[in-house]
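Hi, here's the filled form for the chain we discussed.

Project: internal
Contact: R.S.
Residues: 380
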Amino acid sequence: MNLYIPPSSRIGRIVLVLAIAGLLAVCASVIFVGAQNADTNLPTVTTANTTKARVAENFGRLPLSFEQNKGQTDKQVKFLSHGPGYDLFLTSTEAVLRVQKPRETDKSKEANVREGTVLRMKMLGASAAPEVEGQLELPGKINYFIGNDPAQWRRNIPTYEKAHFKDIYPGIDVVYYGNQRELEYDFVIGPGANPKLIRFSVEGADQLRLDKTGKLQLSFKHGEVSLNKPVIYQLDENGSRREVKGTYVVNGNEVRFKLDRFDAGKALIIDPVLSYSTLLGSANSESANGIAVDSQGSAYITGTAEFSGFPTTAGAFQTTSSRGGAFITKLDPTGSSLVYSTYLAGENNSTRGNGIAVDATGNAYVTGISEGVNFPLVNP
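And the returned structure, exactly as it came back:
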């Protein structure tokens, strides 16, 4: 189904409504490529190369954002996050990271074949029902318009800079945050709480080992990720940090922390960092095809992104993808903040945005292609 959407048409108004509806953290590498290379906008829009270059340069400074699960993925998931070539899912007791790379193969024989790794870090003995909340809400919302049943659409999903899980162990919280290539998770141990309760298993890695610097190296088929040596500290009366020495202790695939002496009457922070930058690669089904810039310098991008569900197993995987959707994203004039974005697709079929234009009042117009008969419509 070829979709050409002139501004005057009713379908144009439909996609306009969808385009300005929400926010999705589209991966940085996708938009970076689009900002550099896409020159196929509709002729009603002038996009300055200097502005596009500035947007692309600044986009990589976006913090990691956590999207609250409002029914768009498996009910086990409390928060999820997307980035260039990876998806991160947080459940009550797990952090699940899926990293994807295009498979190096004969594309004429095996088109859209992707392979990658699923890493699961599970808190052992933790509460199965901690109190969960987002912290530092970010501007904008996320919408999913998948299929032609409005009851299945998800609107106004909030995103946060941090995800806070309270009392995963008695008196111990965990707070997730980070950037596009690293995940930090602070264990916040309250006065009198026992840090020895903190244990987690690592599933999906072929090997776990401690290097000479105290890093925990996790080996996979496609490379390594690392858990940096934990930063451990307490705060004194003046708010200054006092370092507490400590390290990982590894027993098979189980990891815990060994700490030197500390003041049990004060809160204690253990801050490991999961670095997965060496595993990153964008999925071959993701692309940015059009970019427009309005008179204020805000950027509008459209293209195709993969829909990634919650993985059920750990370890290496290989899949053939046939399901993708168009995305429409607006960035602020600095390129460092997402204003809105949305997924737009039929169910179990491919949809892509090919071109985008913006008028004088900031309305976005999109053209593209969708395969299938249940593309989301309103009063078609």
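Let me know if anything looks off before we file it.
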